[in-house]
Write a structure and sequence with these properties.
alpha+beta, 3-stranded antiparallel β-sheet
């Protein structure tokens, strides 16, 4: 049971990154999860925390 859990954890991919845009002033921020109600997804997904390398389409 423990080995099955470890194998599943090792096969998991990291969460993708997205650019989020403020609904108030339009500033953008790169994050893996929503920053709250005042933010909307602007682009992505990306492979890196700088939102520079787009993830390949699946």
């Amino acid at each position: 049971m423990l080995i099955a859990g470890l194998c599943t954890a090792l096969a998991a991919a990291p969460a993708p990154w997205f650019k989020w845009r403020s609904k108030i002033d339009g500033k953008q921020f790169c994050a893996q999860t929503s920053l709250g109600h005042g933010w909307e997804k602007a682009s992505g997904p990306y492979q890196d925390s700088h939102c520079e390398k787009l993830s390949p389409a699946k």
